[in-house]
């Protein structure tokens, strides 16, 4: 018999709105001893059937909903969800000429805990929940049904797996090990991705639209690309005929890849038109400010500063600090392209922080454009948490 989870009175409300999480405090009783990640039926306190969910005994999010229909969670279920996700992305895949994109964005694609990024014929999975782990073999088979002849690799080397009672894992799920670099294309730009050792699954696909939007600000400009990773924004700036691009990051492998990426796109990086600088951005910005070095465009795409609510205050200070410094080193009329990928910081708060940074920098600043994650990172109406990446173009006058 399928195990059963009964909710406390009133706790069915969020599920009726199709939010996919059941918190431990909302559970009245559990019948049938589900194992780690096993599928269970979820019932309201009065016995009304609500959903099929994966059981996570160690997490505060005690169950994640697979389906609000009473169906088997089997190979066909996963094939359907994967096909649905592919169809949802078809128009942007064609528009942007993508050979790399996020195929499955977890909860936002009805597959909680499962991220799959497609880089050419490599499908890279990140499994973050007990349910995702439990279904790993079925998921692998389903991916192969939809994408025959693809290779499947796992990058579940993320600390949050501990909360689900899972250890970290990297390795082949099907086919061969990926090579050191797989070259994808987006908007006519080639990008090498190191699937085995790069950040996350190898690349920051979510910033694609913002990179494309950045091009128009860069013609004949001196650009500082902070937190450059493997070149991302810097490559678009070169395509946009920037006069000079300084890419700054603390990761030498990322900088080496950034240089390689500029080369495979045949951008002219002679005479220091592109520089790849191993530097701590916090220190570098202060140095530039103190030396009076100025730029026309500063791109500010830092890693996630807030992993939990407890870190949010510190994160706000961090964002304010770097954005203030960026404003101080911009020439009059210059452009700040600034982003936050911390889901806990909403767009309104981020806008406030930029406003505070302007006050502290003593500069007059206008918001001229707003950005968000690319469309292969959709947000389900029932799961607003899926919207995490926001950004602004600001003019400093
Ligand atoms: N803009 C990139 C993604 C940036 S990810 C793109 O479009 O692909 C964040 C990057 O910040 C990582 O490469 C990480 O190595 C770097 N980083 C983290 N802390 C840093 C610091 N203090 N100074 C410089 N780089 C840092």
TrEMBL record:
InterPro entries tied to this protein: PUA, PUA-like_sf, PUA_sf, RLMI, RlmI-like_PUA, SAM-dep_methyl-trfase, SAM-dependent_MTases_sf
EC number: 2.1.1.191
Protein's UniProt keywords contain Mitochondrion: no
Protein name: Ribosomal RNA large subunit methyltransferase I
MF (Gene Ontology): RNA binding; rRNA (cytosine) methyltransferase activity
Pfam families tied to this protein: Methyltrans_SAM, PUA_3
Enzyme class: transferase
Catalysed reactions, semicolon-separated: cytidine(1962) in 23S rRNA + S-adenosyl-L-methionine = 5-methylcytidine(1962) in 23S rRNA + S-adenosyl-L-homocysteine + H(+)
Keyword rRNA processing belongs to the record: yes
Main location: cytoplasm
Family: Belongs to the methyltransferase superfamily. RlmI family.
Biological function: Specifically methylates the cytosine at position 1962 (m5C1962) of 23S rRNA.
Keywords: Cytoplasm, Methyltransferase, RNA-binding, rRNA processing, S-adenosyl-L-methionine, Transferase
GO cellular component: cytoplasm
Places the protein is found: Cytoplasm
Residues of the PUA domain: 3-87
